[in-house]
Amino acid sequence: DILVDGKVCDCDIVVTCQVGDPVPLQVKLTNWSKHSVGPFALTVMPYQDYQNGVHNYDLQDAITFVGSNTFYIDTVKPTKDSVYFGALLFLYTGDFYLNIKFHEDNCSRELPLSWLCLPSVHIRAMEPVA
């Protein structure tokens, strides 16, 4: 589950926010399997989609994180969840997307790390209303 500014997000919803206001972000990982999973690392990567196949991830002048964009999640037991809380600050107007990935953070494995990518979240940063 993904919540941006308290609103549940899916791939069909555009969340609007105001430039200069911190935007709360919540990502919840629920373990529906019969076995414990983890450890994981959760990474949030903002980007702009230029609609021509190019994604711009070089946004350090347009978006900043309040805190870190990577969080480490220990083992999640069956039917339990782990929740990440963070915030983004948009410095300019525009349409932005969040690429949210979970990946295994177990260095003792000999197999390649597996990734679970959630659908991108679409956020529209707008000028503050006067």
Question: How does this structure look, described?
Answer:
This protein is an all-beta fold and 130 residues long. It has a single domain (2-126), classed as Immunoglobulins (Immunoglobulin-like), CATH 2.60.40.10. Helix content is 0%, strand content 53%.
The sequence of SSEs as H and E is: EEEEEEEEEEEE
- Uncertain stretches of 5 or more adjacent residues: none
Mean pLDDT: 83
Overall SS class: mainly beta
Pfam families: Ig_TRAPPC9-Trs120_4th (PF26283)
InterPro entries: Ig_TRAPPC9_Trs120_4th (IPR058568), Trs120_TRAPPC9 (IPR013935)
Protein name: TPPC9 protein
Organism: Orthonyx spaldingii
Brief sketch in words of this structure:
This is TPPC9 protein. The chain has 130 residues and is mainly β.
Task: Please supply descriptive tags for the structure shown above.
single chain, 130 residues, Immunoglobulin-like, 12 strands, mainly beta, 5-stranded antiparallel β-sheet, 7-stranded mixed β-sheet
